[in-house]
């Protein structure tokens, strides 16, 4: 009798637990396999790469030696590494800024009532889905120092051809141009989603007050885009700081390693020089910088929102 009662009590408790945590259990069942797969494919390799930063390990057959923070000290004392980090930051900021501005301008055009705007939007997004390897090779054909399209145009105009690969400013310029061409479509679509989410009645109220297009853009559109702007700036910065393929296939880090960014340096350390310790060190430093920059920007952009909600909460408590 006691066993039957205890079994019923356990059954009742189990049913209550299932009902109370139904949503959490469903979410766990759906996300659990995905998280497990991510840990195997990405999570564990990432953690292992971070741990490598505390070892001196050059060559796959060599034995790793635990050296504490020596690799991190070397990173900030060796110009090869901290210069690569600085180039990643300022080139990433340049690419991100130009991409966001160009994408915002393209989104404004996409949002206009144009004929065939669906085709127009698709054309803008084509670069984002094309292969980087293929498009960079086409890009290099245009920049060929002898028979490149751009140099042929310069020759026809009576100018001397330019060897783009031997000029640091031109190399940076073409990396930025390619990166913007590649990313402007995705940025434009996200901006477009933000533009279409702004309440139409705000524009109508602004028109009643006599606002022109410029004033509506400044006082209605831009404030309404604040949430989407926070997202797109953060994701754009993260992606731009980690530029790698453009550098590898357009300049190869040259001339004289002046366009070598940190991710390219990590690739060279890991797969060319087999300096696994420094590759892990650079990876961890870049991850920390990206995280801190993202958190600081997010905190700054949402500061006004938090300050607006604090008095309301305090009044509720009173």
Automatic annotation (TrEMBL):
TM annotation in the entry: 24-55, 89-110, 122-142, 162-181, 224-244, 276-298
Gene Ontology CC terms, in alphabetical order: plasma membrane
A biological process term (GO) from this entry: transmembrane transport
Membrane topology: Multi-pass membrane protein
Compartments it resides in: Cell membrane
InterPro entries: ABC_transporter_permease (IPR051393), MetI-like (IPR000515), MetI-like_sf (IPR035906)
Gene3D superfamilies for this protein: MetI-like
Residues of the ABC transmembrane type-1 domain: 85-297
Entry keyword annotation includes Transcription: no
Sequence similarity: Belongs to the binding-protein-dependent transport system permease family.
Protein name as catalogued: Sugar ABC transporter permease
Species this chain originates from: Cohnella candidum
């Amino acid at each position: 009798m006691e066993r039957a009662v205890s079994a019923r009590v356990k059954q009742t408790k189990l049913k209550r637990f299932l009902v109370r945590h139904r949503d959490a259990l469903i979410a766990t069942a759906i996300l659990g396999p995905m998280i497990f797969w991510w840990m195997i494919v990405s999570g564990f390799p990432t953690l292992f790469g971070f741990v490598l930063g505390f070892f001196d390990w050059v060559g796959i057959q060599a034995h790793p030696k635990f050296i504490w923070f020596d690799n991190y000290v070397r990173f900030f004392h060796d110009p090869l590494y901290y210069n690569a980090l600085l180039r990643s930051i300022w080139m990433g900021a340049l690419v991100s800024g130009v991409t966001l501005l160009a994408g915002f301008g393209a989104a404004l055009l996409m949002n206009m009532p144009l004929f065939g705007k669906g085709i127009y939007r698709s054309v803008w997004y084509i670069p984002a889905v094309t292969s980087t390897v293929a498009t960079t090779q086409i890009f290099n054909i245009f920049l060929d120092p002898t028979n490149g399209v751009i140099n042929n145009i310069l020759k026809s105009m009576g100018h001397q051809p330019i060897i783009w690969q031997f000029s640091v400013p031109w190399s940076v310029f073409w990396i930025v141009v390619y990166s913007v061409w590649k990313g402007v479509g995705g940025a434009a679509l996200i901006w477009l989603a933000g533009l279409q989410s702004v309440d139409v009645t705000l524009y109508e109220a602004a028109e009643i007050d006599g606002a022109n297009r410029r004033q509506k853009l400044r006082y209605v559109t831009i404030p309404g885009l604040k949430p989407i702007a926070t997202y797109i700036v953060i994701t754009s910065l993260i992606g731009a700081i980690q530029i790698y393929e453009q550098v590898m296939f357009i300049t190869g880090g040259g001339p004289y390693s002046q366009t070598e960014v940190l991710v390219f340096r990590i690739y060279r350390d890991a797969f060319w020089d087999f300096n696994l310790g420094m590759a892990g060190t650079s990876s961890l430093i870049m991850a920390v910088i990206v995280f801190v920059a993202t958190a600081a920007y997010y905190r700054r952009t949402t500061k006004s929102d938090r300050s607006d909600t604090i008095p309301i909460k305090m009044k509720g408590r009173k």
